[in-house]
Specification:
five-stranded mixed barrel, OB fold (Dihydrolipoamide Acetyltransferase, E2P), 1 helix, 2 domains, 37% strand, 126 residues, single chain, alpha/beta
């Protein structure tokens, strides 16, 4: 056709490097599977572990506590677990129902696991 310019592109035979060889495909598949396995394993590990916050403090009044002190205390509606490893500081007063305390520990699910309980204000019984 006169007056029409056409670009001519020389034909080139495809080279074997233009397409993936089976080994390259295998390596890509293996790398993808490895990334997926690591990501899924990490996500599963975090999902199966209860949430924990260390060094958290809870202030409140002791509503009830078991005899012998070991067990679950109710400190202003919060369930606080006291074990034999929990230190109880009674310099300002006795740890008994009605006393205002500071509990230090970690919240795990619905229970606050206390590592230390400090009496801030004793119960002011008449």
């Amino acid at each position: 056709m006169p007056g029409v310019l056409r670009a001519t592109v020389p034909y080139r035979q495809p080279h074997h490097s233009d397409r993936d060889c089976p080994m390259q495909t295998f390596r890509r598949l293996l790398a993808t599977a490895l990334v997926f396995a690591i990501t899924a394993g990490t996500a599963f590990a975090f999902a199966s572990r209860p949430p924990e916050v260390y060094g958290q403090k809870h202030y409140g009044i002791i509503v009830e506590m078991p005899n012998g002190r070991i067990g679950i205390w109710n400190i202003t509606g919060e369930r606080v677990e006291v074990t034999k490893e929990t230190t109880i500081d009674e310099k300002l007063g006795k740890a008994e129902p009605g006393a205002f305390v500071e509990a230090t520990g970690k919240k795990q699910w619905s229970i606050f696991k206390a590592s230390r309980i400090v009496v801030k204000l004793p119960d002011n019984k008449p």
